[in-house]
Amino acid sequence: AGALNAAQMTTFGTLDVLFLLGADEVKVPDGTFVVYIGTHGDAGAHRADVILPGAAYTEKSGIFVNTEGRAQMANRAGFPPGEAREDWAIIRALSDVLAKKLPYDSLAALRQAIFKAVPHLMRLDQIEAGNAADLKTLAGRAGNVEKVPFKASTADFYLTNPIARASAVMAECSRLASGHVLTAAE
């Protein structure tokens, strides 16, 4: 209740401060103070007033849910460089500085809080059963289905995130997919 959606948050004058947690595709209005937590210094970092270096996905442990609803555990492959930290650790440290201390001091304690709030996340590699009542609720909402063809949500499949945009290989894939042929002058 009282929360703002992305469109409302990015409307001029709505927010004084906006935290971008690896969000690089957000058009932030002028006058908004931006804190960026991320890994590759893409568009979000260029717009930021403060950058807090986060760990890349290979440098942190996580629980992911695939499109089936199956919770999966991922372990970090290495440690983040320099002063970079896992996102939860950055947010926890900020909560202390802002005198709104979050009730966990470790990844294990955070996971216990998450599992209490969303129990099916602790049942790794299991699909959570669907609920027919949820479908009825969704079907009962007002709305219109437009009769227009679906379109891609991304302009360039090969450059959809900061890691891909920082990759020479992905840039080459993008160039090849676009049909652009290099000339001697290029």
Write a structural description.
The protein has 186 residues and is an alpha/beta fold. The chain has 2 domains: 6-128, Rossmann fold, CATH 3.40.50.740; 156-186, no CATH class. Helix content is 29%, strand content 12%. The chain contains 7 helices and 5 strands. It has helices spanning 6-9, 43-47, 87-97, 107-117, 132-139, 162-165, 168-178; strands spanning 17-21, 33-38, 50-53, 62-65, 71-74. The strands form 2 sheets. A 3-stranded parallel sheet has the order 1-2-3. It has a two-stranded antiparallel ribbon with strand order 4-5. The radius of gyration is 20 Å and the shape is globular.
Report the structural category.
alpha/beta
- Count of discrete alpha- or pi-helical segments spanning 4 or more residues: 7
* DSSP summary, beta strand count: 5
Largest β sheet strand count, sense and barrel closure: 3 strands, parallel
Percent helix, as a range, is 25-40%
Strand order of the largest sheet: 1-2-3
Question: Which CATH-level-2 architecture of the largest domain?
Answer: 3-Layer(aba) Sandwich
What percentage of the residues does DSSP assign to strands (E)?
5-15%
Outline type = globular
- Can you give the mean pLDDT? 88
**Low-confidence runs (pLDDT<50, min 5 residues)?**
none
CATH topology of the largest domain: Rossmann fold
What would the keywords be for this entry?
alpha/beta; three-stranded parallel sheet; Rossmann fold; two-stranded antiparallel sheet; 186 residues; 7 helices; 5 strands
Write a brief caption for the model.
With 186 residues, the chain is of the alpha/beta class.
